[in-house]
Every structure is written in C-alpha cells, then in structure tokens.
Design a protein that fits this description.
This protein has helices spanning 7-10, 25-36, 42-49, 53-61, 63-72. By secondary structure, the protein is mostly helical.
C-alpha cells in the first residue's frame, strides 16, 4: 500500500499556518456578563460571538483569572 503523503510534503513551509481569532479581554468580560447577569445560555453566547460552546465554557471556568487581569488593566 502506498503512503498517503510524501515525506517531502510534510515539511512544506510554503503553506500558510492556520490562524485563529482570540477574544479580547473586554469581550471576555462581556461574555461573562451575558452568562451571569443576563442569564443567556452558553449556546446563545457562542452564537453571538461565533465561537464554540466549549470556548465559552472555558471563559466561564476562568472567570476569576479574567476578572483579576481586567481589574489590573488601567
């Protein structure tokens, strides 16, 4: 059986790497406000920000660290 891809193709540097969009700290605080104060579900918030539900769950789990870093920003 032939290999799926050549070993020379595996290290091709001409292909661009994937990029991902990271939410800003202020947007993370808005996510926390939507979930806690406005009682939106994780799925609704994920749809608003075009993210996965698991990403919203991670933000909510890390709310103490996000709150502390948001308070430290002038």
């Amino acid at each position: 059986m032939a290999p799926r891809c050549k070993s020379s193709d595996a290290g091709n540097l001409a292909m661009p790497s994937r990029s991902h969009q990271v939410l800003l700290l202020s947007e993370k605080m808005k996510v926390l406000n939507l979930t806690r104060k406005e009682r939106k579900s994780y799925a609704e918030v994920a749809e608003i920000y075009n993210k996965n539900v698991s990403s919203i769950c991670d933000i909510v789990k890390k709310r103490k660290e996000i709150g502390a870093s948001f308070a430290a920003v002038p």
